[in-house]
Amino acid sequence: MSRARRTPRQADIARVAGVSQATVSVVLGGNRTGVRLSERTRLRVLEAAERLGYVPDPVATRLASARNNLLGVYTFTPAFPIDVADSYYPILAGIEAEAAALGQDLIMFTGSSAAGDHTRIRRTRLADGCLFLGRHVPVDAVGELLASGFPIVYIGRRTELDGTIPYVGGDYVSASAEVVARLVGAGHRHLRYLREPDEAPSSDDRERGVRTAAADAGLPVDGLVVRTDGSDLTAATLAAWRADGVTALVVEETDTGAVFHATQRALRAAGISVPDDVSLAVLGRPPGDPPGPEISGFEVPRREMGRAAVRLLASLLDPGLGDPAAHRLLTCPPVAGETISAVRP
């Protein structure tokens, strides 16, 4: 039984050519660092490589080149979502589609915590540039990448690091204001906006849109915004709000959907009908596919955000592709839904 032939390595080429392995590495790598070598030495190395049937490792070759045609994707979750209802799924689908259209490959990185990890994030340098997803920015690690000139693009508006982080996000301010304007147009004057206690630019933008539209319409602002994790939303809470004249609830969309689910449970427990008794809107889309009438709100253009982020990153890597704005907000189309109705006299 014949033994399988071992794949030749650079050390074998060095031995046959009578040079050091470092010299072989320089020659086969195209001498990008400008090391002084005689033409005779270079040809001897190439002839030895050809005679031995040496085939370079494609991964190693790409990592050694000036451009790898690899785009990184880093998300601060332990694993990438596989549920199509997950809010990250359409973003990832958009990233994949646009990367394929541009002839780029993807390499994916995950972090085990929202705070991130310097070592993990440094690994993104395997790629030419990297896309980041997540509600919170690991400021020190991302600042280190920016300071080194490594191209990155965040998906979602970012204000950290003095606004120097390139991003593609949704225009939640305008979309949220439009939802409130719709409610005002239906005769609603007393609202409650339910926002989760977590801090993030996307949450701040939604609240700003709500407050701006409420102020423009002259609505009462006392008690307008309620910070809650959902645990204190009970049938008694909603009954008290109704007694105070509240006719519409507006809920923040988040990754967890905790407050939306808590609101749904409290409405059922209180026997409050939507939209007959109370109108309901979500600033975004409700998580999953809740039963009942379609919830009014707006679409977050996640798939297009992924595609636009890839295009922005590609332009940072190759200015010849154009120079789009480093900070871009996409329009969030309204969803009429069936849960906003006119206030009954």
Would you kindly provide a written description of the structure presented here, covering whatever features stand out?
The protein is α/β, with parallel strands linked by helices. The protein folds into 3 domains: 10-64, 434 Repressor (Amino-terminal Domain) (Orthogonal Bundle), CATH 1.10.260; 70-170 and 303-330, Response regulator (Rossmann fold, 3-Layer(aba) Sandwich); 172-299, Rossmann fold (3-Layer(aba) Sandwich). The chain is built from 13 helices and 12 strands. The chain has helices at 10-17, 21-28, 39-52, 58-64, 89-101, 118-122, 139-147, 160-163, 172-185, 201-216, 235-243, 258-270, 302-317, and strands at residues 70-75, 105-110, 129-133, 152-155, 167-170, 191-195, 225-227, 248-252, 279-283, 296-298, 327-330, 334-335. The strands form 2 sheets. It has a 6-stranded parallel β-sheet, covered by helices on one side. Strands 7-6-8-9-10-12 form a 6-stranded mixed β-sheet, sandwiched between helices. Helix 12 links the parallel strand 8 (248-252) and strand 9 (279-283). Helix 1 (10-17) packs across helix 3 (39-52), helix 5 (89-101) crosses helix 13 and helix 11 crosses helix 12.
